[in-house]
Amino acid sequence: MRQIEQALEKIPTRIVEHYALSSILNELGYSRINDKIVQLIRHKVLTPLKRGLYVYMPLHNRVLFSTELVANKLLSPSYVSLDWALSYHNIIPERVEVVTSVTTKRSKEFTTPFRVFSYKQIKKELFSIGLLIENSQDISYIIASKEKALCDKLFFTKDVDVRSKRAMIEFLEDDLRVDLDEYKDADLSIFESYYNISKSQKIGVLTKIMQGVKNGDY
Questions:
Q1: pLDDT digits (tens, 9 = 90+) for 2-31
Q2: What are the start-end ranges of the E strands in 43-130?
Q3: pTM higher than 0.90, yes or no?
């Protein structure tokens, strides 16, 4: 068992897919791969996230794995966005429990031993706008910029009448509790590109407000 853990410790993300795990076990001389994986799960060395995807859980190492990377891995292509990304960028004050992401695939939800991971479907043309690749300790993951995260949040929020600037500002500040001061240095091209592709009236109003925030008119 210790040899297996030593091999798994070389994976900096602590997230391991079935093919990589099978390769490690083969190299160590194990033939009944799936039986060994079941044993590793039983001994809590591995925690399954979904079929074929696991988190290595070393008892002697309390270093946390990247929740955002798990979100990217559970469903690909995807990026972390909406409430989780807004909280990540300190745009909203609330602590977010569900990890929210956007994908070009069908909307889906995964319940894992760690968190619930929720995915919203978006068309391909909107997918790649305003994404960031964050790097930390040899780990990289894709997350929406603060501009893209807000666009996504508004785009996926249904049944709100925000066709005027006043209504939009009230919705942003009172309902979403967005700190608009955080957008004084915003990249307006992200809002503009999102609007030009989506043709969403809500995003159009949001873009005008962000222009005012950027210019100091708000």
A1: 899 889 989 989 999 999 999 999 999 998
A2: 46-50, 53-56, 78-80, 99-103, 108-111, 116-121
A3: yes
